[in-house]
Amino acid sequence: MGKTYDRIDGRLRTFIENQPLFFTATAPLGQEGTINLSPKGVAGSFAVLDERTVAYLDFAGSNAETIAHLRENGRITLMWCAFQGPPNIVRVHGRGEPVFRDDPRFEDLVARFPGVDPAPHGLRAVVVVTAELIRDTCGYAVPFLSYDEDRDLHAKRFAREDDASLSAYFAKKEHIATSIDGLPGLPLPLPGRAG
Fold first, then answer.
1. Start-to-end C-alpha separation, the chain
2. C-alpha to C-alpha distance for 58 and 122, rounded to whole angstroms
3. What is the CATH number of the domain that holds 19?
4. Residue 126 and residue 56 in contact, taking contact as beta carbons nearer than 8 Å
5. Distance between CA 1 and CA 65 in Å, rounded?
6. Which of 4, 82, 92, 178 has the most CB atoms at less than 10 Å from its CB?
7. Which of 146, 68, 50, 49 is nearest to 58 (CA)?
């Protein structure tokens, strides 16, 4: 049986902080819009800010659907699955906001991720999510999977970029500045860091 929680603390917080992978789901308001589901797994890129607020680092990729949907309507669900140990699935349904690099809050937010380089290559935004509904469910059908190690390909790929070359890379991608459904995505050229 699923349970609803008032806050992210104790056992629940420990569980989500220990998972090497989580998923985000967003959608535009339009009925014909494209629903987006994304895996997130860069080590150290997730943080619990307080008992109702979480955040994750949004890195370079080939699209910006999550950012576009959040800019349009703010709706987001985050999900963690137990692939080891007792079965469990935790979902945080809430409102999200992409905090871009030129936002005065950006540097303080990045400092909340102590295990990550303070100037990681390819960092586009910090996504801050305020929980409206926190639930867990059994996860009995989730298989056991082993976690071996992080891939280093993303870090190696974007270590070659500076702000100008990263903006040029994004400009060549069809769904960075504009989503699949034509919504505003990542501001380009990539905003510089305020600090």
1. 47
2. 9
3. 2.30.110.10
4. yes
5. 32
6. 92
7. 68
The residue segments making up the domain with residue 139 are: 3-172
- At 32, list the tokens: 């014909």
Report yes or no on 149 lying in a domain: yes
Note whether residue 184 is domain-resident: no
Whole-number pLDDT of residue 118: 66
The pLDDT score that the predictor gives to residue 1 is 65
Question: Which parts of the chain have pLDDT scores under 70?
Answer: 1, 118, 195
* 184 upstream amide cis, omega within 30 of 0: no
- Is residue 12 assigned to a domain? yes
Looking at residue 96, its pLDDT comes to 98
- Is 176 exposed, middle or buried (CB count within 10 Å of its CB: 0-12, 13-18, 19+)? buried
Q: What are phi and psi of 99, to 5 degrees?
A: -100, 110
Nearest Cα neighbor of 142 from 43, 25, 21, 56 is 21
